[in-house]
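Need a sequence for this fold. Nothing fancy.
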C-alpha cells in the first residue's frame, strides 16, 4: 500500500479521511472512554499542515463531540455521517432535512429517558442530529423494555429512522444519506483545482463501505481497520495502532515531497 501511496503522491495532492470509533481509536465499552490520544491529535494536525494535504474526520458522532476532540487542529470535521460539516476556515454545512428533524430527535430523546428507568442501564448518546441508545449493559431480563420502547417510537415518529445495530439503536433523520454522501459533500466544498487528489479513506464497519466504494471509484485508497472480511476496501490494517503508524508514514512522505 505504501509504495502505491508514495507513487501517487508524487503526482497528486492528498485528501485523507478517517472514521473515528474503531478506526482512529479502539471501541470501548463506554463510548465516552474512547478518547483520542494527544499524540494522535498532534500527528493529525501535523499531517493537515503539510503541503497539498487535507485531512477530515467523518464519524457517526456529532459535530459537537468531534469539535471537542479536534478543535484548532486544522481538520475538516464531518459529524453524523457528514450530515453536518465544519471546515477549518469556519465554513459550515448542515443537511436541510436533518436540520428540520432536530426537534423530533429531541422528543425521541426525552421519551427514551422517561420510558427507560435507570436500572435498565442504557447509555443514551445525544449527537444532536442523531441519537445512539446503547443497551449492551442492560441486564438480559430487561432488554425487551428497550426493544419495546424503540418499536413504539419508531411507529410514532416516521420522520426518524431507527436502525438496530448489534447492541444499540441508532436514531437518525429519515434521510437517505451514507458516508459516501458525506464524502461528496466534503469534496464539493473544497477547492480542488486541477489534479484530482489521492483520496485515502480508513474505516472499520459496514457503515464505512459506501465511503470505501466512493474512494475506489476515484482511484483512491480504501483501508479497512480490522478483519478483511466482507469489505470492498482494497487494504486492511489490523488495528487503530497500525493506522496511527500509517499516519506517521504519510507525514514523512508529505514532508519529503
Ligand atoms: Mg467506526
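Here you go.
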Amino acid at each position: 500500500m505504501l509504495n502505491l501511496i508514495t507513487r501517487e503522491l508524487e503526482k497528486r495532492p492528498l485528501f485523507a479521511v478517517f472514521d473515528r470509533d474503531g478506526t482512529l481509536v479502539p471501541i470501548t465499552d463506554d463510548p465516552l472512554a474512547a478518547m483520542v490520544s494527544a499524540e494522535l491529535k498532534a500527528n493529525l494536525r501535523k499531517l493537515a499542515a503539510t503541503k497539498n494535504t487535507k485531512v477530515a474526520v467523518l464519524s457517526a458522532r456529532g459535530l459537537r463531540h468531534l469539535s471537542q476532540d479536534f478543535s484548532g487542529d486544522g481538520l475538516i470535521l464531518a459529524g453524523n455521517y457528514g450530515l453536518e460539516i465544519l471546515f477549518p476556515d469556519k465554513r459550515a454545512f448542515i443537511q436541510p432535512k436533518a436540520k428540520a428533524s432536530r426537534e423530533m430527535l429531541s422528543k425521541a430523546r426525552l421519551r427514551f429517558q422517561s420510558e427507560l428507568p435507570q436500572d435498565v442501564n442504557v447509555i443514551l448518546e445525544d449527537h444532536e442530529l442523531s441519537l445512539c441508545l446503547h443497551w449492551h449493559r442492560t441486564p438480559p431480563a430487561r432488554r425487551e423494555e428497550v426493544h419495546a420502547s424503540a418499536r413504539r417510537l419508531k411507529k410514532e415518529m416516521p420522520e426518524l429512522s431507527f436502525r438496530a445495530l448489534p447492541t444499540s439503536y441508532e436514531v437518525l433523520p429519515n434521510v437517505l444519506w451514507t458516508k459516501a454522501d458525506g464524502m461528496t459533500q466534503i469534496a464539493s466544498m473544497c477547492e480542488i483545482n486541477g489534479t484530482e487528489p489521492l483520496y485515502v479513506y480508513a474505516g472499520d464497519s459496514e457503515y464505512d463501505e459506501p465511503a470505501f466504494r466512493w474512494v475506489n471509484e476515484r482511484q483512491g485508497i480504501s483501508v479497512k481497520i480490522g478483519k478483511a472480511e466482507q469489505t470492498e476496501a482494497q487494504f486492511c490494517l489490523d488495528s487503530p495502532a497500525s493506522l496511527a503508524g500509517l499516519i506517521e508514514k504519510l507525514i514523512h512522505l508529505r514532508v519529503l515531497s
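For context: The first strand starts at residue 14 and ends at 18.
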